[in-house]
Structures are given as C-alpha cells and as structure tokens.
C-alpha cells in the first residue's frame, strides 16, 4: 500500500465536488448523457447495506448524474447468486459496477468478464480480485486496532493482569475479516490471553451465539474477561449467549457498524463499543469513482492511496478513517453526524439510561 492519506474527508469532499461539477454545462445541466450504474451488495444480515449504503449511493449517483440510474441486487450472502447477478448486469450493458463482493475468489471470473466487456468495476468496502478499477473502504487494520484498544480499556485491571479474551471474528470468505482480526490481534496479543477464537460464517447472529455458548461451556464464564466481536450482528449473538448463561456482570464486548440496536445496547451497558464508519463518505467516494469511470475519466483526483489484491497491484484506492464509539461519545459522533436522533436511540425504556450517559434533548 502506497499512501498519501488525507484528513477524514475534507480533501475527498473537494475532489468529489470537482467530479460533480466537471460533468455539468454552464446552464447547470449534465454535459454528458445518462447511464446505468450496477450496484451489488452482499447481504441483508448486516443492516447497514440496505438501510444506509444502498439509499446513499442511489442518491449520490443521481446528484452526480441527473439522467443516470442505479440497477441494484443483493446477494443474500450467496456467492453463486452474486455471480449470477453480476453476469446479468454485464449482459444488460451497465456502464460501471460497484461491487461489494461476497467471496473474492468466487467472483474473480465475473470481474474478468466485466473487464472484457469494457465495464469498470469499483470494489466497495471489500477488496475484490481480478482487474478492478478502484477500491473504496475504511482502513480495516485501523478498525481492528480500535476494537482491540477499546476492549483493553474496557477490561481495565483485568487486562493488566493478562485477562482472558474470546475472539468471535467475521466470515473467513470476506477479505475484511482477516484485516480486522490482524488489527485487533496486533493490540491484544501482548496484553491479554486469547483463550478461544472463532470464525463466524455469514456474520450471522445465530452463529455467533453458538460460538459464544461453546466458549462459555469450554472455559466457564469466570475466565472470560472480554469478547472481541467483529461487528454488531456478531455482538448481538455474543451478548444473547452471555445473558442466556446468566453471566453477570457482562464482560466488555466490541462491535462494528454502529447499528441502532447496538447503540442501544451500549446505552444499556450490555455492549462496550462499536466502530462507526461514516457511510456517507464511503458512498460518496464510490459514487464519484463510478461516475468518473463511466465517463472515461481517470481517478487521480479522487484516490488517496493504492492497494494490492492477490491478483492486481496498485489498485487506486480511498481508505477512510473509522471512529470508536462508546457510551461517552455517542452524542459527539452519531447524533452530531445525523446518523440517529436522540429520540431514535432513547426509547421510553432507555430514558433513564440515556440520561446517565448524557443523551438528553
């Protein structure tokens, strides 16, 4: 990776605006005709894809190209389905593809087919394999380090005494899962004892529940001082298993994606932290890349670094900075950025808990 990192969004926003203006005529109309952007997202198991990424990309593409349309498909965590969806979009002649890949190896042939058809592919959130034209994501190593640092802090004196941690990682078919795990291990390995480590197929809550139940049965609850859960769906399963086993108090549990249910668990004190990835920045960067590529423009003004995949070196890339969220800074991050309102977070049952953490109207 060769990086020329910008701030959390100022340089990128300026570049995106430049792309937006570059296609406009003096009377404000689009200087080039419309086209179709294919958008392929991986699942509905993680709420962010349908609730945040899809509508934000659709909105931003329309802002950048008033006559453009977005063709959408969701793979439901099935690589064969995603391959079929992508091949269908190639056959129908979309001008560019934004691909959040379920399984990079399984989709490699489809990426090559897109390249042969002259359709550029923007890898979104996960680094696809094959001849992709650009990549937009958050720094996965940084995500893992934020989780590891927060877990150590949440464990307090137990971390200082070499406390025991269970790792419930993501789906091994996702390149991001190893990226996150490597980042978290870089923090944890010299501070705590990693007692058990599991991979969670499909990032599914029920699979995470099974892993945590197995860890509790194998270790006993008293030996588990913290849980590194790779995302919020996994954290939900971990916490449900801990509560079913009547573990009290709950050990600190990490997360990722800032799902609304996870934020509420943080307010209640059930989940210690989540990693907030400002989705608007990611969707705007990917949309700008896609529109530029469909218009035949290069990405020099948009990218901040390069990444190597197993098949392709020096992929033009944007890596954004994630943010650690705990009970202390929900208001300064998620509420301030308009992700959730206090009323959305603070249901009547959570009102007193919200007051305790300073979430007041």
List the helices and strands and how they pair.
Blueprint: E1 2-3, H1 10-22, E2 36-41, H2 48-64, E3 69-74, H3 79-92, E4 96-99, H4 104-116, E5 121-124, E6 134-138, H5 140-155, H6 157-160, E7 164-169, H7 175-188, E8 193-199, H8 205-219, E9 226-229, H9 232-244, H10 260-268, E10 274-276, H11 279-294, E11 305-307, E12 315-320, E13 323-325, H12 330-335, H13 342-345, H14 351-356
Parallel strand pairs: 2-3, 2-4, 4-5, 5-6, 6-12, 7-8, 7-9
Antiparallel strand pairs: 1-11, 10-13, 11-12
Helix pairs in contact: 1-11, 2-11, 3-4, 5-7, 8-9
Strands of the widest sheet, in order across it, are: 1-11-12-6-5-4-2-3
Radius of gyration: 21 Å
Structural class: alpha/beta
Please count the beta strands (DSSP E, at least 2 residues each).
13
Contiguous low-pLDDT stretches (5 residues minimum) are 1-31
Tell me roughly what share of residues is in helical segments.
Answer: 40-55%
Structural shape:
globular
Number of helices: 14
Strand content: 15-25%
Biggest pleated-sheet summary: 8 strands, mixed
* End-to-end gap: 44 Å
**String of helices and strands:** EHEHEHEHEEHHEHEHEHHEHEEEHHH
Quick check: average pLDDT?
A: 91
Characteristics of this structure?
14 helices, alpha/beta, 361 residues, 13 strands, 16% strand, 8-stranded mixed beta sheet, 3-stranded parallel beta sheet, globular, 44% helix, single chain, disordered N terminus
């Amino acid at each position: 990776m060769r990086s020329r990192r910008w701030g959390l969004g100022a340089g990128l926003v300026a570049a995106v605006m430049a792309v937006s203006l570059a296609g406009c005529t003096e009377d404000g109309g689009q200087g080039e005709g419309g086209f179709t952007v294919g958008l392929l997202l991986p699942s509905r198991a993680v709420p962010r894809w349908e609730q945040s990424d899809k509508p934000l990309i659709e909105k931003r593409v329309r802002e950048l190209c008033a006559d453009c349309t977005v063709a959408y498909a969701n793979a439901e965590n099935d690589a064969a389905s995603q391959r079929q969806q992508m091949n269908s979009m190639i056959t129908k002649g979309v001008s560019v593809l934004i691909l959040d890949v379920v399984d990079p190896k399984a989709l490699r042939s489809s990426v090559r087919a897109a390249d042969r058809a002259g359709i550029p592919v923007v890898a979104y959130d996960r680094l696809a394999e094959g001849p992709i034209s650009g990549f937009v994501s958050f720094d996965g190593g940084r995500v893992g380090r934020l989780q590891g640092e927060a877990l150590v802090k949440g464990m307090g004196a137990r971390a200082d005494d070499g406390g025991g941690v269970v790792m419930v990682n993501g789906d091994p078919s996702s390149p991001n899962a190893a990226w996150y795990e490597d980042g978290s291990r870089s923090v944890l390995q010299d501070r705590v004892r990693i007692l058990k480590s599991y991979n969670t197929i499909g990032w599914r809550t029920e699979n995470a529940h099974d892993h945590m139940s197995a860890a509790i049965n194998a270790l006993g609850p008293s030996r588990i001082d913290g849980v590194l859960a790779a995302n919020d769906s996994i954290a939900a399963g971990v916490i449900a298993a801990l509560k079913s086993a009547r573990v009290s108090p709950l050990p600190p549990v990490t997360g990722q994606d800032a799902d609304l249910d996870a934020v509420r668990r943080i307010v209640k004190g059930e989940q210690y932290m989540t990693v907030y990835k400002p989705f608007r920045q990611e969707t705007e960067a990917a949309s700008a890349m896609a529109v530029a590529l469909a218009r035949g423009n290069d990405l020099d003004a948009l990218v901040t670094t390069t990444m190597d995949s197993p098949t392709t070196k020096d992929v033009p890339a944007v890596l954004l900075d994630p943010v650690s969220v705990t009970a202390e800074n929900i208001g300064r991050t998620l509420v301030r950025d308009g992700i959730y309102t206090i009323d959305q977070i603070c249901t009547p049952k959570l009102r007193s808990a919200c007051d305790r953490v300073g979430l007041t109207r």
